Each structure stands twice: as C-alpha cells, then as structure tokens.
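Morning, I've got a small favour to ask if you have a moment. I've been staring at a protein lately and its backbone has me curious. You're getting the sequence in one-letter code plus the fold written as tokens. I've dropped the whole record in just underneath, so have a look:
=====
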Amino acid sequence: MSKRQEQILQIVKDHEPITGEQIAEMLNLTRATLRPDLAILTMSGLLDARPRVGYFYTGKTGMRLVSERIRKLKVKDYKAPPILVEESVSAYDAIVTLFLEDVGTIFVVNKERHLAGVISRKDLLRASLGNKNLEDVPAGVIMTRMPNIITVGLEDSLFDAANKLIEYQIDSLPVVIPVEGRKNTYEVVGRFTKTTITRAFVEMGKEEVI
C-alpha cells in the first residue's frame, strides 16, 4: 500500500461516509488523481463505495482479506495433471512412475479408468521391505483402496483442500468428479498437493505487485 493510499484510508476511517471529492479536497489533489488509488482500495476490500453516499471503511485487516481471498480460490483453477497407473501394473513399475514423474503420490485406476486407490512413497517403501520381488506384486495389493481415500472436488476451495492435507497428514489429494449413478465412484481429473498451495500464494503475490 502506498503512502497516499494509507492517507486515504485514514481519512475515510475518520470521516466516513465521505465522497471522493471531499477526500481529494483534504489532500489538495484532483478527483481524477485519486481515482486509481480509490479503485485499488475498493477492489482490495479495504473500502466500500456506495452511490450518492461515499466511501466507508470496511474494518477488515490485511490478514482477514487474505483469508477471504484464499477461501474464494477454487481447486479447479490450480489443480495439476494427475499421475495415473492401472492397478494391474507391478509395484516396481509404480516406483518407476513415481520417480520419473517426480511426485510423492500416484493414483491407481481400474479398467474403467475410475479411481481405485492411492500409492504413496510410504506404501512403496513398506512393500520394498517385505523381501518380495516387486515385479511380481500388483500395485493393487499395496495401494490404499476406495472408499478409504480422501478426495477433493473441482469446486472446493483451496482453503478446504489445504485443510484436508493438514488434517489427514497426506501429501496429495486426487481431484475427482463423481460418476453419476455410482456411489463412491470417481473419475480422476487432477491432483492437489502442497506445491499447489505454494503456487497459489506466489500468484497472489504477483497480483499484488502488479
């Protein structure tokens, strides 16, 4: 926030409701000069503008505004492409896929391409410690199966998705669309990870700079 915007904010706090012309007069500036600053303060949610009345201070703090913004962001706008394997592939092939794609979790689908399970690095490590030939062990044997999988939908907020990552202590969530007419059956359309959250914050930061 610029020094002039801080001055505008303080004037509105002290004299609300107040018109743009009145603010300009108090700062010895023209209304046109203040227009961009007023637009920024209004769009950011710090000020509220009412026709024929003037500007009001919303009383929202910077952290509250950030919180509201995060809750409005949708998973569908930030999801990454899903990394999928079929449940018939071997655990060895699942390991190869996981490291080639540089991800911590892969999603397993059945013959209908619906979500069947999830395999994490922990699952693969556990399988490798069993003194078994991983080329002979199907991925379906070591995966976490439906319906014991935490998922997230396209219209869910980033906040709710991030909360699931923390609550269930997992690294990745499959982004899914329910298959109509079939209970606990989903099509996988993306993945949501801790990196997703980081990317969202970086993009928000760039918007503020712009």
User: Anything to note?
Assistant: The chain is about 45% helix and 20% strand. The mean pLDDT is 86. The first strand starts at residue 47 and ends at 50.
